[in-house]
Amino acid sequence: MANSISKLAYQTLQQGKSIAGLAHKQLSTRLMELVAPEAMPGTTTVSAELMNELRASITALQDRDWLEAEQGIYPTELLFEAPWLDWLSRYPLLWMDLPTTWERRRDRNVRDLPKQTDTSLYPDYYLQNFHHQTDGYLSDHSAALYDLQVEILFNGTADAMRRRVLAPLKRGLRHFSDRSPSSLRILDVATGTGRMLQQIQGALPHSELIGADLSAAYLRQANRWLNVSNKNLVQLVRANGEQLPLADQSVQAVTCVFLLHELPANARQNVLNECCRVLESGGVFILADSVQLADSPQFSSAMDYFRKTLHEPYYRDYIGDDIEARLSSAGFDGIHAESHFMTRIWSARKPVANQI
Ligand SMILES: C[S@@+](CC[C@H](N)C(=O)[O-])C[C@H]1O[C@@H](n2cnc3c(N)ncnc32)[C@H](O)[C@@H]1O
């Protein structure tokens, strides 16, 4: 009985998030049409067939999310966890931010970053307003809005997609089952505001967690969410995923979520190489990013819409990229991939020494 009520509560919550996300997108598009028509992206009609595909795959994602909680891969409470009050209090900021977003889109101004940015600290590809967002990734203002923006973009499914990392992560860590959970180190590359680490913290509360990202502002936000109460302290490091400040073979698992599509091809490969370098032999790597044309051709117009509506300069190249080949070239084997709604999850292993 209690279980059925929790499941109903979960489904209702997801439905509510989905309706809120759709309503926000519709309202903001109408407002843009009215006050900034020049910023409107070319219209793309969403066919009934695509809508049905999207709905069915959201339902499948939510069923899987519930099932894996029931199986004990993570606690059911994680399904309800979010800084709701905080997000609510920040919501008006999203609306206040829209006019400058439209201005940037209209003017094709994609290098509108805070004046004080020390550009020598970042690769050139990073110094852009991804998604047309104010300050790119380079301010507390941007970090404060990011989680809400992502939730709205994915109609409230962002965390459910991130949680698809947890089952293969836990499976992969069985390789070290003779060690104490607290001796296992897990690194999340491009952790942003730490939503992936939050899910990992729920599923693997005793492991040592490290988050790396290029944005100090996003890491400050992650610190606010993660390093609270009596949970294990999470280490947060400002670093380029292409040159991680970690020793060879120093972690047992690496995750990397929603980064690769924002990188040019060579940086994509560099990041994968680094993930392999810092992993101990036998360690597991879980990569999550947008689905691609080859595995999800039914979503090609949704991918096109994403690329045209939001500033995503490397997305077109990414959706045609051969990630399996890149993983092999980085040194991984045992590569497996599956898709959940708009996210593809790859799991791979660093071969143990005598298998190399
Ligand atoms: C789309 S966000 C994803 C954040 C987070 N993983 C999530 O699940 O929401 C991309 C993140 O990658 C970071 N990033 C981009 N290029 C990077 C690089 N070369 N090295 C480290 N972080 C990078 C950005 O600062 C941003 O936080």
Uncertain runs with pLDDT below 50, 5 residues or more? none
H/E series:
HHHHHHEHEHEEHEHHHEE
In the sheet with the most strands, the strands line up as 3-2-1-4-5-7-6
Report the structural category: alpha/beta
The kinds of small molecule bound in this structure are:
S-adenosylmethionine
What profile does the largest beta sheet have? 7 strands, mixed
> How many individual domains?
1
- Helical residue percent band: 40-55%
Radius of gyration of CA atoms, rounded to a whole number: 20 Å
Q: Give me the CATH architecture, please.
A: 3-Layer(aba) Sandwich
Strand fraction equals 5-15%
Q: Overall 3D geometry? A: globular
Polypeptide structure, described:
The chain has a single domain (1-356), classed as Vaccinia Virus protein VP39 (Rossmann fold, 3-Layer(aba) Sandwich), CATH 3.40.50. Helices cover 46% and strands 14% of the residues. It contains twelve helices and seven strands. Strand 4, helix 9 (265-278) and strand 5 (279-290) form a beta-alpha-beta unit. Helix 3 packs across helix 4 (140-153), helix 4 (140-153) crosses helix 8 and helix 9 packs across helix 12 (323-330). The structure holds S-adenosylmethionine. The site of S-adenosylmethionine has 20 residues, from helix 7.
